[in-house]
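pasting for the record
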Amino acid sequence: MNVTKEIKQIEDSAVQLTATIAKEDVASGYKASLAKYAKNIQLPGFRKGHVPTSVLERKYGESLRAEILGDLIDQALNEVLSGDDAKDFRPLPYAQPRLDQDKLPQLDLQKDLTFTVTYDVFPKVEVKEFGGITIKEPQVEISEDDLNSELKSIQERNAAVIDKNDGDPVEKDNIITIDYKELDDAGNTIAGSERQDFVFTVGSGQNLYKIDDDVIGMKKGDTKEITKTYGKDEKDSELAGTTKKLSVTVKAVKVRNLPALDDDLAQDVNEKYKTLDDLKKDIKLSMELAKKRKLAEMKSQSLLEQLVEKNPIALPKSMVAAENESRWHMLSQQFKTSPEQLEKMVSASGQTKEAMLQQWAGNTEQALKSRLIVDTLLRERNIAVTPEEIEARYQTIAEENGLSLDEVKEHYSDVKAKEYLIDEAKENKLFEMLYKEVKVTKGDKMSFADLFKADSAN
């Protein structure tokens, strides 16, 4: 088939492909298709394979011509897009070519057939600009307070929760069970506001109406009316600038009975610890490892954010949509439901699918651009890792996690797990190379706790 083409780049990494099939090929293609239909169709009064083409044309007319037109277009597209010179303008797998509705082609056996399709292609990625990039690495020291905070968490996880005496008042850090409901100005219950057996730790702020201070002093069995006025800057938009009247009943008051910080606690945590000092030493090592990983993540994120800003990439809309759908499917798996059911649940709660994706998965476009930049640099710089480097990585993982080398190798005997490890090693190698080409400076001093608070705040 003799097909000429013209490619026009348009916005968002899309192209407009105009193809022309020579009239000789249009005519021969039409005849060939018509003969194929005649051979396979069966009509009353004719033996199969002996239906005259003239009968077919009279009986099926426009529908037959439309179908053959579609076949000719498909053949032309396959020819144009399968050549070696087509690699830069092939459509993405999830971006099928769309016919230009303003210039729908007509089948005329006496003329060339010209049609135009639009589709998304892989975006052009050029990473050339590194100037002016500065990465500030926070200076983090693990203090005695940080260590004690982690020990306190271990205490709490190993605490026995026991009921307080019935007459004992609610105090900060008590675990209480309450029933509550909203009241209107006349003191009547507002329908749908009731909640039974709600449990929270007093002082944690982990309750809708922020009534921690208001329940202090109450006793089991007490009911209290609480009026709360919320400022306009309240984070919960439904509460901001409102006044709520609540009825709260305390049903249970419990206290955590914290174990002593001693050798017995260390042995309860894990039999490998003989003394509290053994536990402290292990905690410190784990905190150092967590710090190292978090700082590495922050450095790479800062570098990629600046590279994305300095090296613009026009993302195809279909690529962003496909990525969002993939994220939505993964999110539904986390919630142990179907993508369709998750969307219904989100809509019922007053949220949107887009807002929830942003909250749980972050900025899709930023993540895609970062991935494209990393993949491009890995390819352009021929980054590879040797078997010896992977062996060294096995050893490091074993040491960091208190495992034997054989246990680590057994885990990575899975093909996908090993591929992930190799990809991670390549990226680490790339980043170490890039850090030498940009400016890395010491950032502000930061506590270990604040290092992770900054992450959760984002």
